[in-house]
Design goal:
Blueprint: E1 3-7, H1 12-24, E2 28-32, H2 43-46, E3 54-57, E4 60-63, H3 65-75, H4 86-114, H5 121-130, H6 138-161, H7 177-192, H8 197-200, H9 203-213, E5 220-222, H10 225-233, E6 256-261, E7 268-275, E8 279-284, E9 292-297, E10 301-305
Parallel strand pairs: 1-2, 2-5, 4-9
Antiparallel strand pairs: 1-3, 3-4, 6-7, 6-10, 7-8, 8-9
Helix pairs in contact: 1-3, 1-7, 4-6, 4-7
């Protein structure tokens, strides 16, 4: 089955998935999507979900890097992301949550601030809209660099302490998803603000980053968005095994629903196909796609009835 990653080059979450695919030795097709709305060839495949990246496998579209990691691990269990230990899986998830909240946001706001004029006003407006914030002017974006520098430095410095005992990787001697999740943040800083001296003051972190970078991205073939949509329309979603799960929201399979990340305005709309404590699946059809199934995680997402869909 063809695997297609919808991403863009300087997206840190995309780099996380690119490294996952490289670590597993998976050959994949690459579709580059815009960094901000509109995304006319992307959102039809995701039911309107606008975050990056997503992994398309036939007519199934997996969103959010946590769920993408779970899918990749099931499909290609060796080499494991977790060293075969359920404990390591929990630790890797905890480190990813820390990385992608306390560490990511001050870093992202600092990077955007020092590059305020490099990014278009459309980009700044888009990010404000995603988080339900007023659209800032360039001066306000620049001010965020100073505002968040101390927070970024405080969080990044913690990485150095993970290797104080000369461990090669975050959880010891074996690479895990914890490394790939954590790496995306200093990689992001290096990519958008190259030559940043702060990381150069962290020698153990630099050595670890060099080890992670050797994973690479695997065998990649560039394709266009039309080909990805064509592939979706030639495929059929994997059949769903009904669970009999009772959703706390009172929704049942067949209901029109919205699934949106908590704290962000990025809803996916469709027909509920499956829900349990781990994941949500919705069926999506529109003028571009015949039938795709969009997969999203339960944790961190809100499931609600789509009252606009009568």
């Amino acid at each position: 089955m063809k695997w297609i990653l919808h991403h863009y080059d300087f997206s840190n979450f995309s780099e996380k998935v690119r490294l996952m695919l490289g670590y597993k030795g998976i050959a994949w097709d690459s579709v580059e999507i815009p960094a901000h709305l509109p995304k006319p060839d992307y959102t039809p495949l995701t039911g309107g979900y606008r975050r990056t990246p997503s992994l398309q496998v036939g007519a199934d579209v997996y969103c959010d890097t946590r769920l993408i990691a779970e899918y990749i691990e099931r499909a290609c269990p060796e080499p494991s992301f977790y060293g075969g230990s359920p404990r390591n899986k929990v630790l890797a998830r905890a480190i990813a949550d820390w990385t992608e909240s306390r560490m990511l946001w001050p870093t992202a706001l600092y990077i955007t601030g020092i590059n305020a004029e490099r990014f278009s006003q459309d980009f700044h407006s888009d990010r404000a809209s995603l988080h339900g914030k007023p659209v800032p002017n360039v001066a306000q974006v620049k001010a965020s660099a100073t505002k968040y520098l101390a927070q970024m430095r405080s969080e990044l410095h913690t990485i150095e302490d993970l290797f104080v005992d000369d461990s090669a990787y975050v959880l010891g001697d074996e690479l895990s998803l914890a490394d790939i999740s954590l790496y995306q943040i200093p990689w992001f800083l290096d990519t958008i603000a190259p030559g940043h001296s702060f990381l150069d003051q962290m020698p153990r972190t630099r050595e670890w980053m060099a080890r992670i970078a050797t994973i690479g991205h695997g065998e990649v073939t560039e394709i266009n968005a039309e080909r990805a949509i064509e592939w979706a329309n030639q495929s059929t979603p994997v059949p769903v095994v009904r669970s009999g799960f009772n959703a706390p929201e009172g929704l049942i399979v067949g209901d029109p629903v919205l699934v949106s990340p908590i704290g962000e305005l990025s809803p996916a709309g469709g027909t509920l196909a499956f829900v349990d404590d781990a994941s949500i699946m919705i069926d999506v059809s529109n003028e571009r796609v015949k039938h795709v199934r969009v997969h999203l995680p339960r944790s961190g997402y809100r499931l609600s009835r789509n009252r606009a869909d009568k």
